[in-house]
Each structure stands twice: as C-alpha cells, then as structure tokens.
Amino acid sequence: MILDLLDKLYQAFLYQDRWRLYLDGLGVTVSITLGAICISTVLGMVLCLMKLSKYKILRWPAQAYIDIIRGIPVVVQLLIMYNVVLLNVTDNKMVVAIVAFGLNSSAYMAEIYRSGINAVDPGQMEAGRSLGLTKTQTMWHIIFPQAIKNCLPTYTSEFIVLVKETAVVGYIALTDLTKVYSAIQSKTYDAFGPLLIIAVAYFCITKVLSIIFARMERRLRTSDRR
C-alpha cells in the first residue's frame, strides 16, 4: 500500500518534471492573492472612511457597494468581470482575476477596518481634540494605530480566505494550483496524488501567513507593554 502511494506521488509530482506545473500554478495563485490584497487593503480603507462619514452622499454608495459585493458569490463576480466589465478593456486573465478578487475582498476589508475603528475607545478622539489636534490628525496619529492592532487577527483571516478563494480562477482558464490538479489527473487517471500535493501546498501557504501575522501581533503586544 505504501509503495502504491509513493508511486502515485511520483507519477503526480516527479514524473516528466510535473513539479514544474505545480510551481507555475503556485506562482499564479500567489500573484493573484498579493495583487488582490493590495487593492483590497487600500480600497477597503476608502470604503470604511466613506461608510463612517457623516455625509449620506458618501455613506450610501459605500454601504450599497458592500452589500452588493458581499451578497454575490465570488465566482459569479469573477465571471462578470471577465465576460462583461473588462471584456473590451483587457484580455489579460491575470489582471481580470486580481481586479475581481481585489474588489470582492475590499468589501470585507471595509467592515474589518470599521470594526477595528469602532473598537477604539471614543474617549481617544476627545483626548486628541483636547490636545489641539484636528479630527484628521487624531484619526491618523491616535485612532488608526490602535485600530490596526484590533484589525490584525481578522485581516489575517481575510488574507487566508483570499488565498483559498483564488481556487476558482480556473473558470476563466487560468492555470492556478487547483487547475494543475485537473491537468495532471487527466494524465495519470489518479486523483489522490495531485489532490494531496495541492492540499499540502495550500496548507503551507496559509500556515506561513499565519506565522508571519502571529509574530506581528506579538510585536505589537510587546510594544503596548513598554
């Protein structure tokens, strides 16, 4: 049984240098994730500030955007972006995927930021204003640093979720890790080997992210105690 398992793994990974396919797929997955997280980190903050604004003309569009994006499956948004929105703009599937996942994740990021800001004691704003700081200065120098610490665990979770959500990019014919499974399974007629390999790959990515952000959290807690 062990020999049979090893043979399946050999056929799925080493035979004819098939590991190169996994490496290419990993590159696609990581590239989409990093590009999307950059978009969502910035756009999410903009949406958060719009939603927290006292002006309805800013609050309502932000709320509508968040509700719509969170109410539609990400794979449907990906297909809409590919077949409708960016159809005549670009034929670069990687760009389409990054934009689609970035816009999707930004709605969740906005809520993460909002919850982090709301978790800061309201007295912090009053204290900053009493020191002569403007509202913007108080938000930037006092509220945001504390909000970031509050947001970090949930931000980490969203980052990890984004990695796993990219597994649907095969719908627009991008060869990511999951798509590599289909390609190799069609050659080996065995599902277990390639599935085990991509499962381990996804686990390693998410575990590394968890370790990185856990260290960041510990450093921030250490700075709080100084």
Automatic annotation (TrEMBL):
GO cellular component: ATP-binding cassette (ABC) transporter complex
UniProt xrefs under Gene3D superfamilies: MetI-like
One Gene Ontology MF term: transmembrane transporter activity
Database matches in InterPro entries: AA_ABC_transptr_permease_3TM, ArtM/GltK/GlnP/TcyL/YhdX-like, MetI-like, MetI-like_sf
Principal location class: membrane
Transmembrane segments: 28-52, 64-85, 195-216
GO-annotated biological processes: amino acid transport
Keywords assigned: Amino-acid transport, Cell membrane, Membrane, Transmembrane, Transmembrane helix, Transport
Pfam families noted in UniProt: BPD_transp_1
Protein location: Cell membrane
Sequence ranges assigned to domain ABC transmembrane type-1 in this UniProt record: 26-213
Lineage: superkingdom: Bacteria
CDD domains: TM_PBP2
Membrane topology: Multi-pass membrane protein
Recorded family membership: Belongs to the binding-protein-dependent transport system permease family. HisMQ subfamily.
Protein name as it appears in the record: Amino acid ABC transporter permease
Organism for this UniProt entry: Pseudoflavonifractor capillosus
